[in-house]
Amino acid sequence: MRGGDTTGLRAYNERLVMHALLQTGMLSKAEIARETGLSGQAASVIVNRLLEDGLLVKLDKVRGQVGQPSTPIAPNPDGAYSLGVKIGRRSVEAILINLLGEELGASRVRYDAPLPEPTIATAISQAAGLLRHLSPAARSRVVGLGVAMPDEIHAWSAELGLAAGALDGWRDADIAGAFARETGLPVTLYNDAAAACAAEMIAGHAITRRSALYIYLGTFIGGGVVIDGRLYRGEQGNAGAIGSMPTGPAGPGAPPGQLIHSVSIFLLERELAAGGIDPAAALADGSGETANAIFDAWTGTAVTDLSRAVVSALSVIDFQEVVVDGFLPPAWRDRFTQRLAMAVEHYNCSGLKTATITAGSIGPMARVLGAAMLPLKGRFSPDTDLLVRSGMARDLM
């Protein structure tokens, strides 16, 4: 630690211990020392302090093994809490989780369009409502609030069938400030697809390698980039903006289209509605012969464009896997992923390494869950440079 900063060193070592226990679930003091590289005495002092602070708890002694019985130490589920809010094009969601990432409460409000003032007011009301479920003592243990939302929500009026300028209020909205004033919590904004990728890394099981291209099929397609086991944001904070990738040659006097205009779920919703199917119901369970036929037709076009983008991405970064998630029902998500994998196989991939293409494991809750988990990860990660300029966590694994 620079300059003999013992306070900073102590805080770092506390995060080191917390990180080790959150990764493993429980360890004895001796195992904590080995896992963290701390001396036995230092580990014992830190564990005792974290026990006093209520962040850790002692479990029953483990007997029947060689040597003296050991006392496992584990994270206290009620030692800390975090709030997550997802502001989307069709809904606002909020979730309250404990230190282990377990859901304690959630709410969701749908709307026809994300008009700035009412949407922000609704989101704040949801967050405040969840906080009211906590006792004053528990309320003091909320480490922060994460807000996941599209980076340029103001730019999609036409795609959502709104009048030009209807979403311009998002340009200058002080979203973090509004939440902070109402809740008194530190607030961090995250890109919604990147937050979903973070949730898969922290709580899911689909990202198993050190490099991955993460694709989230939401109202508008988005993505995340994992490099060296970390969620990579890029020098300008815009890595993973897969929706902006071109889909083909330019037309006469017009630029090429983008993936956002061929692989986004709002297009599937339009097709379902035109076929007399309630989009919300179809996307909830994926049932019905007509709904499935419409989905398969949309998938054909979407997979054609997305497979080209995936191969292009693999030629730039040697991703080991591609993970596809979103708010499609599981059967549709799996079918989409399988067709994408088959489409990629038909490309000439000479000179490229094979990447596994799999379905994500979290689904529609990924964005709001990531928003809630990132403040906890920021508080208890041993990486002292955890947050980059955009507020996105660097070290997630």
UniProtKB/TrEMBL annotation:
Belongs to the ROK (NagC/XylR) family. GO terms for molecular function: DNA-binding transcription factor activity. It comes from Azospirillum thiophilum. Residues 17-58 form the HTH marR-type domain. This is HTH marR-type domain-containing protein. Gene3D superfamilies: 3.30.420.40, Winged helix-like DNA-binding domain superfamily/Winged helix DNA-binding domain. InterPro entries: ATPase_NBD, HTH_MarR-typ, ROK, WH-like_DNA-bd_sf, WH_DNA-bd_sf. It comes from the Bacteria. Pfam families: MarR_2, ROK.
